[in-house]
Structures are given as C-alpha cells and as structure tokens.
Amino acid sequence: MIPFLVLIAVIVIFLLVTSLKSFGINQEYQRGVLFRLGRLGQTKGPGWYWLIPFVDRVVRVDQRIITYQLETQETITRDGVAVRVNAVLWFRADSPIQVVNAVEDWRGATVQAAETALRDAIGQSDLDHVLKDRATINTRLQQLLREASLKWGVEIDSVEIKDVDIPEQMQRAIAKEAEAIREKRARIIKAEGESEASKTLANAAHTISQQPGAMELRRLQTLTEIGTEHNSTIIAMFPTELLEAAQKLMEAKK
Q1: In angstroms, rounded to a whole number, what is the distance separating the alpha carbons of residues 183 and 185?
Q2: 81 DSSP assignment
Q3: 8-state DSSP, 152
Q4: Whose CA, among 3, 153, 199, 247, lies 20 to 30 Å from 71?
C-alpha cells in the first residue's frame, strides 16, 4: 500500500513540474522564439503561453532600447591627426527571430560593429569636419551600422559622438588659427570703417567748399562743442574774410 502511495505522489509531482514547465509568461517588452524539436516555430508573447514539455524550447528576447557607451577609440583623421573619440550607441532587437538565429551574441556583435564603424567614419573625415560638423558624421556612422545590423535583426536608433580629444600641440595650433582669423576680421572691419569715413569726409569737404560761409559756421560750431565739453581757455582766430576786408580797406586808403 505504501509503495503505491509513493508512486502516486511521484506521478503527481512529475505532472505538477511538467505543467509548470509547459507554462510561460512574457512581459510586454519580451518576445519568445519557439524551437520545437530544434526547428524554428512561432514567436510567443507578450502574455502567457503553453509549451509541449520536453519538446518545445523558448529563447526570450528583450526588445527595449539598450544604451551603450562605446570604448574610447584612438584613430587618425583623413588629414593625419591622431584623435581619441567617445560615442554613445542606442539600439534594440527589432526582429527576435533574426536576433536569435542570425548571430550568436547580437549585443556584442552590434557593439563591435559600432566601434569599427566609428573608426571608419573618423578616418574618412578631416579634423575640422570632426570638430565642427558632428551631425554629418553621426548620420554617416548610423548608415554604416545599419548596413551590418539589419541582417542581424537589430535596429540602430541613434549613435552620437560624445567627445573628441585632440593632442595638446594641435589645440594650441587651433587656438592660434582662431586668433589669427579674428585679428584678420578686426583689421578688415577697421579698414572698411576708415574707407567709409574718408568718403564721408570727402563729400563733406566738397559740400563745404561750395558754400563760402559754411567753413565759418563749422568753425564756430567746433568752438561751441569744445567750450561745452572742456573747461579750458579757447583762443579764437579772426575769420579769414575779416582779414581780407581789412586788407582791402588799407589798400583803398593808400
């Protein structure tokens, strides 16, 4: 009697374990790739699902976006400058079936492809392009990654260069170049201002020369401005017209 009860207990436990193994639950962001006797079946989830014990096997795939900071890459730009570049990668599993069957480690493969593409993108760009136009390089980098990752069922959401470290001597050279450019702009602006001022003065001189009394009015206006702005003694000379009139009177008396 006792062995019979033990046998029944063993059978019940076996059935219970088997039923638990045949029942599975996937979260909303998870998908289960089914293998039935080693052959690919349907994708399971989200929610609960039943499996045939000892026949079906499910590999879960997380479809949430993964953020990964790539290791610092030391590479050389197209114009021969050594740089150290950091970048951040955002990717996710788009096709669970391809992710499981096309590549052994889809996360590691994507990261390795990203680091290789980063070196290629920097090597195809000049230093000025890397420093001033990162958006174009990011777009180029994303295109290179998609060519490799789409066949793995991986979607590259974004990849962005985070930091670019250049040698100290190159930093000094760039600073000198920027200073020279600013000095050049300042000299050009100053020369343009002097050119416009000389043209204005020439026009004013031409206008004043056509009016006999304009010079005297300008002289009186200048004396008024000097007297208002400065507390000083002003020596005013007689107008030339008065001297000429006095000279004519002297000649008439003779």
Answers
A1: 5
A2: -
A3: G
A4: 153
CA distances from 213 to 96, 224, 248 (A): 95, 17, 19
DSSP secondary structure code for residue 151 in this structure: G
Torsion of CA 190, 196, 200, 203, to 10 degrees: 140
Q: What pTM value is reported for the model?
A: 0.62
**Helix 134-149 to helix 106-123 angle, to the nearest 10 degrees?**
140
Give per-residue pLDDT as tens, 208-221.
Answer: 666 666 666 666 66
For 201, the 3-state DSSP assignment is helix
φ/ψ of 224, rounded to 5, equals -65, -45
Q: Tokens 């793995």 correspond to what residue? A: 152
What's the CA dihedral at 9, 14, 17, 18 to 10 degrees? -150
